[in-house]
Specification:
By secondary structure, the protein is an alpha+beta fold. The chain has a domain of 120 residues: PPM-type phosphatase domain (Phosphatase 2c, domain 1, 4-Layer Sandwich). Helix content is 32%, strand content 23%. The radius of gyration is 17 Å and the shape is globular. β1 and β2 form a beta hairpin. The strands form two sheets. Strands 1, 2, 3, 4, 5 and 8 form a six-stranded antiparallel sheet that branches. A two-stranded antiparallel sheet has the order 6-7.
């Protein structure tokens, strides 16, 4: 049995919380755990994160019954749900000038038949916790993570880098 908890914090910079999450009922055939951390504009990030979660969730729910239940089909479903969410966020960002450039991270954890399928874009993270051990399962899509991976800076330098929040991948235009 999986125990799921969610806590969100507005942070030190924003006036409104731009996080959004979804946790499905543990009795469902497919369990979904989703997190989005919005960015951009006064309320653009708040709109982007909610849109990403609701559209990816509905895509998965509307298409899961029609797919083969093999590994590749489920991986494709998760990926397609993220592409769909990206399209929805992008289309919304074009509707009003104040939403231009809005975006969000998106984490999807789909559990079916005791197997976990992950979708990830941005610098939010998915961890696995077993007993006393916590392991990061995703890698940040950030400029600073790329610098670390390339060996340009150390992990310690990354923690205080002035561009540590600059993303190279996110749901947006």
């Amino acid at each position: 049995m999986i125990k799921a908890y969610a806590k969100s914090d507005i942070g030190k910079v924003r006036e409104i919380n731009q996080d959004y999450y979804y946790i499905s009922d543990s009795l469902d055939e497919v369990q979904l755990y989703m997190l989005a951390d919005g960015m951009g504009g006064y309320n653009g990030g708040e709109i982007a994160s909610k849109l990403a979660i609701t559209s990816a969730k509905s895509y998965i729910e509307n298409n899961f019954k029609q797919i083969e239940k093999d590994k590749e089909s489920i991986i494709q479903l998760v990926g397609s749900s993220m592409e769909y969410a990206n399209m929805i966020v992008y289309e919304k960002s074009k509707e009003k000038q104040e939403l231009e450039g809005m975006g969000t991270t998106l984490e999807i954890c789909l559990i079916y038949n005791n197997k976990v399928y992950i979708g990830h874009v941005g610098d939010s993270r998915i961890y696995r916790i077993r007993k006393e051990f916590m392991r990061k399962l995703t890698q940040d899509h950030s400029y600073v993570q790329k610098l670390v991976k390339d060996g340009t800076i150390t992990k310690e330098e990354a923690m205080h880098h002035p561009q540590k929040n600059m993303l190279i991948k996110a749901l947006r235009m």
